[in-house]
């Protein structure tokens, strides 16, 4: 299964558990009901800001939301720092440079430049980065230590 399919399935299950409509969830997290439907159908990619809103709303990890973990919540999430700042910290902790990541992966310098300017990364991109850095999405974005 791909990342969008896993996310769509997790979102549907979480909504079913709470008996939520797309309209009710959309209002709760600040997006349109049509966006919720697109996510459930796997037609639209998810950005980090919305993934965090959904994970916080459902009380789950981003890993769980994306279908990468079976346990719903195994820690208390922290407020996330700006993504670029956190990424620089994680890269330092893992001994990886921007140059090394660009060399080893499909990431370009443009990704880093956009993130430094505050662009909201796609979760699909973060999954690839977390896999490369051998960490969870929640660790990568600063929700867990």
Name its key features.
145 residues, mainly alpha, 434 Repressor (Amino-terminal Domain)
Q: Can you describe this structure?
A:
This protein is mainly alpha-helical and 145 residues long. The chain has 2 domains: 63 residues, lambda repressor-like DNA-binding domains (434 Repressor (Amino-terminal Domain), Orthogonal Bundle), CATH 1.10.260.40; 59 residues, lambda repressor-like DNA-binding domains (434 Repressor (Amino-terminal Domain), Orthogonal Bundle). It is built from 10 helices and no strands. Helix 2 packs across helix 3. The longest helix is centred in the first third of the chain and has 16 residues. The radius of gyration is 15 Å and the shape is globular.
Mean pLDDT, all residues = 92
Unreliably modeled segments: none
CATH superfamily of the largest domain: lambda repressor-like DNA-binding domains
* Largest beta-sheet characterization: none
Overall morphology = globular
- Give the CATH topology of the largest domain: 434 Repressor (Amino-terminal Domain)
Calculate Rg over CA atoms: 15 Å
The first-level CATH class name of the largest domain: Mainly Alpha
Helical proportion, percent range: 55-70%
Topology, please?
Blueprint: H1 3-18, H2 22-29, H3 33-40, H4 48-58, H5 62-65, H6 83-94, H7 98-104, H8 109-116, H9 123-133, H10 137-141
